[in-house]
């Protein structure tokens, strides 16, 4: 409960004022975002602000359920950053490039969905160049098809890569666009689901005129 209170304070007094005053959003189809868990939000990834932006678009009472999926090798073992990501952001750390063996690298994600949590996942795996979509990794397809009853919400973000691009420390004010797609379910094979998801993300990019994607 203590860390949840800290998370709420962080959102009310720091994150949300920063996102709405310093950055600003134009959101298309915000009504399509999840109204309850379990759910999987899938976004393109250009900035560390992507997760913070997506959390800002959801109601405060969802904070108990929101679990961003993040790279363990990047965020863990770095003192305050590790504490902040685990305790305040409540990330689910996943080992990138984990070999297929007896252990499932997505086991914690499966458990979180069973508990009714809302996962935030970036299928590209790491931050790409602003306005450019990298090839999606297969993890999201594995997760969605193993939970065919859990809704998947594609979300295209544009502009956050200019607010805080990769390698930058200080954010620059820049108005951002967000488009939320129709709900998807992993009811087909993994390859077909992944193709459908990529196609949906490109369609959303067209809506907010991300030129390199079109």
Walkthrough of the structure:
This protein has 214 residues and is of the alpha/beta class. It has one domain: Glycerol-3-phosphate (1)-acyltransferase (3-Layer(aba) Sandwich), CATH 3.40.1130.10. The chain has 8 helices and 7 strands, in the order H-E-E-H-E-H-H-E-H-E-H-E-H-E-H. A 7-stranded mixed beta sheet has the order 1-7-6-2-5-3-4, sandwiched between helices. The protein is globular, with a radius of gyration of 16 Å. The N and C termini lie far apart (45 Å). 34% of the residues are buried. The model has no long low-confidence stretch (mean pLDDT 90).
Q: Keyphrases for this structure?
A:
single chain; 214 residues; alpha/beta; Glycerol-3-phosphate (1)-acyltransferase; 8 helices; 7 strands; 38% helix; 16% strand
How is the topology of this model organized?
Blueprint: H1 2-23, E1 25-28, E2 39-43, H2 49-56, E3 66-71, H3 72-75, H4 80-88, E4 92-94, H5 107-114, E5 118-121, H6 139-146, E6 152-158, H7 160-163, E7 176-180, H8 190-207
Parallel strand pairs: 1-7, 2-5, 2-6, 3-4, 3-5
Antiparallel strand pairs: 6-7
Helix pairs in contact: 6-8
